[in-house]
Amino acid sequence: MLALATALAVSAAGPAAAQTDPAAVAKGYKAPRNALGQPDLSGVWSNATITRLERDPKYGDRLILTPDEAKAIEGASDQRNARLRADTDTTIKDPDKLPECQSGALGAACGYNAFWTDPGTRLVRIGGEARTSILTAPANGRLPTRPDAATARARAQRGGNFDNPESRALGERCIVGFGGTSGPPMLPVLYNNHYQIQQTKDAVVIVVEMVHDARIVRLADPQHPPADMRLWMGDSVGHWEGDTLVVETTNLRREEGLRGPTDNMRTIERFTRVSPQQILYQFEVVDPAAFSAPVRGEESLNFTKDKIYEYACHEGNYAMTGILAGARQAEKNGKPVEGNRGQIKEEGGN
Questions:
Q1: What share of residues in the chain are helix, strand, coil (percent, to 5)?
Q2: CA distance 83 to 99
Q3: pLDDT given for residue 129 in this prediction
Q4: In a domain, 74, yes or no
Q5: Considering the domain boundaries, does residue 252 fall inside one?
Q6: SS3 348
Q7: Does some domain include residue 148?
Q8: DSSP assignment string, 121-177
Q9: Spatial separation of the C-alpha atoms in residues 231 and 182, rounded to whole Å
Q10: I want to staple 130 with a disulfide (CB 3.0 to 4.6 A). Which of 123, 135, 139, 245 is the partner?
Q11: Is a pLDDT exceeding 90 seen at residue 4?
Q12: Which 8-state DSSP code applies to residue 201?
């Protein structure tokens, strides 16, 4: 028993394989079939989690947390959430110092305080094991960016951050969700982490709660459009490999993708239902010009009885006119907005 315990401890502390075998997670579970005979992925699922995309360097190449480490991290998260939900301390006059303002953007209005956010309370768990990061490859769980790739998003922008609507982030413009939530790959953000999957004979539709996007994965037509035809969320083509839905996406616009893609970015996603309550979601990003090695990651899409309601983004988007009008007034006053030629930081990025 001592030898077994030692072996398990070494396994938990050592490097893990780049991709998990879904069959090992499913442990004999067989996904139910829908009326079309497909593995049934339909329903509403959530990838909300406190696990970050990139791994804290202190963990090195270790993907799996020990039970005690996981308990401590989730316990600290629970304590923080309880503190943020407490009554506001009216003796604190600086809004940036309020505890509830520390969960989102800073500023006079506190950005989004804890009332508005829902990033999740638990770590990613796959096969019952808590993860140190969503990324599984490279082994250190860090993005292997190339120096010139960091400017990809800046090149896609037109002028300064406050010059035109086109210079603002896509989420602010109500085009696609913030922080990569729409995908591919589909990453958790500050709130609205629900996805509704619907299946037909010829397509799988993934309705994204954030900004109310809808990804259409074609099953019947495997051909991608010409390379110069760029689409929001790219062009996704899928096929079934046993119980796994495999989706290849190309033709992404440069404003999207993982941290500023090049024109040749390609993603491969794999959706495998491994239990009644979970879909194992795996992704690989291949973009040699942006990343020095392939990037792989894994998440758990967890079943929820919640419903997805319309995200009426455009109807309430008074912030866009306010941001631009404020910048114009600042220029008239001879005080251009700080960071007017800088880089936008999207809210909710993981």
A1: 25, 25, 55
A2: 7
A3: 97
A4: no
A5: yes
A6: coil
A7: yes
A8: SS--EETTEEBS-SEEESTTSS--B-GGGGGHHHHHS-S-TTTSGGGS-TTTTTSS-
A9: 13
A10: 123
A11: no
A12: S
**Which two three-digit tokens encode residue 327?**
């910048």
Per the CB < 8 A criterion, the answer to whether 349 and 260 are in contact is no
Cα–Cα separations (whole angstroms), residue 311 to 64, 113, 191, 206, 253? 35, 19, 12, 15, 23
CA 242/CA 251 separation, integer angstroms: 27
C-alpha–C-alpha distance, residues 170 and 176, integer Å: 6
* Pairing of the two strands 235-241 and 213-218: parallel
Residue 14: what pLDDT? 37
Which H or E run includes 246? strand 244-250
Chain-centre distance for alpha carbon 244: 21
Give the residues across from 303 on adjacent strands.
45
Residue 335 is encoded by which pair of tokens? Answer: 């005080």
Domain contains 172: yes
Handedness of CA 258, 48, 284, 196 (dihedral sign): negative
How many whole angstroms separate alpha carbon 279 and alpha carbon 272? 5
**Helical H segments across 96-253, by residue range:** 152-156
Tokens found for residue 207: 């309705």
> Using CA atoms, how far apart are residues 198 and 206, in angstroms rounded to an integer?
6
Q: Which domain holds residue 271?
A: 9-65+125-332
pLDDT tens, position by position, 250-305: 999 888 878 766 778 899 999 999 999 999 999 999 998 889 888 999 999 999 99
H-only helix segments in the chain? 2-13, 22-26, 67-84, 152-156, 318-332
Residue 247, beta-bridge partner list: 238, 269
Q: In DSSP terms, which residues pair with 206 in a beta bridge?
A: 197, 215
3-class DSSP state of 62 = strand
Quote the number of domains for the chain: 1
Number of neighbours of residue 70 by Cβ within 10 angstroms: 19
